[in-house]
Write a structure and sequence with these properties.
The protein has 12 helices and 19 strands. The chain is an alpha+beta fold and 457 residues long. The protein starts with a helix and ends in a 9-residue tail after the last strand.
Length: 457
Amino acid sequence: MSDYFNNNNDFNTDEQKNSGTYSYKKDEINQGESYYQWSPYDDGNRVKKKKTSTFGKKLGNAAAIALVFGLVAGLAFQSVVAVTNRLWKLEDANQTAIESTKTEDKDSKVESTSTASGTTTATKITTDVSEIAENVLPAIVQVTNVGIKEYQTFFGTMQQPTQSAGSGIIVAQDDDYIYIATNNHVVSGAETLTITFNDDQAVEGTIKGTDSSCDLAVVSVAVKDIPSDTLSSIKVATLGDSDSTVVGEAAIVIGNALGYGTSVTNGIISAKDREVSVQDDDGNVVTNSLIQTNAAVNPGNSGGALLNAKGEVIGIVSVKLADAEVEGMGYAIPISFAWSIIQQMVDNDVVSELDASYLGIAGKDITSEMSEQYNVPVGVYVAQVVSGSGADEAGIEVEDVITGFNGRTVTSVNTLNNIMKYISAGTTVDVTVARHDNDYKEETIKVTLTRRIDKVQ
């Protein structure tokens, strides 16, 4: 592994983007808002005023100074008397003032800010996360992806081994396997996956499921392959509620930064519901609503945990905005959104090609920009309906827009395909359709999925 890092020092190359590190220049990522830097000196109007002085003014100033001096001297004399009279009461007054800050003053017109509630003080949340780290580290793993990269040379297509490092979170366990949530881009293209636990014990993992439309994946590790000492020391992470997080609350990131092993950084939740668009390994533009944090996120943190001050996982680290002009802009997939997708991967296997389901449409993506321009909802525009398919039988028509499928929001054809690969032909699902002949109002219909005609024997 050391050879890999010695030969791959630039983590912002296109190669590294596709091998476990989503680090993007600011002009390569769409955050749904403009980028602007303000300087207090932008106007350039900093002209010095000319000094004007005359003898008359100087004389008047001298007289004024003399008058002020006399007044100050008189006041100073009276102040000495007043201070002397009150000097003996000063200690008692100070003591009273100190004690008054310890009790609630019901007559105070201005309320003071309250301190952080809970068992952990505000100071400890922002400066000491050792207790949280100690508790959560056994649930964090390193994910090493070894694959094969093809490239063109003068002599033709050549192959060479590649290795990249990412992170993962133990989220579930049954009698036979433990299940690790990570990013799709961390495991993409893997020939082998090595999972290294917090005690440095390494075992082989298997991809259980992936969803490239939201950059999520699940890796399984057989319990029988894990040494008993390691098995007794690892933990399943406690998941929190990312919907209830608020901007400004404490945040901690734990992951395999730069492939050196697990490390801990902390900061705050900088923003919520950031619409971030990036390109995945297949060239698809993936747009997700993410949590932004200023806790340091580095290559290799992908797939790691974003935690709240209770040590609960509230996000899966996914993207970093990298630029010389940018600091502290990392993003995580909210766990409240991700969990249902992860659970589907844990509970289900990708169906075989013969049993794969088929909706029966040809579709095109309606992006948020197209939605605004043409006043149609975001989703999959139906360009064609195959006669006799499930879509045809259910009454889906050309120009309709599919916005939901089997309980998931559909934003692209890629999303639709990722959902369907876990569903067998013959299954009846709920499909939300925006009707083109009814001002694109949504309705939910039942669709029985069929097999592709060219797969039927």
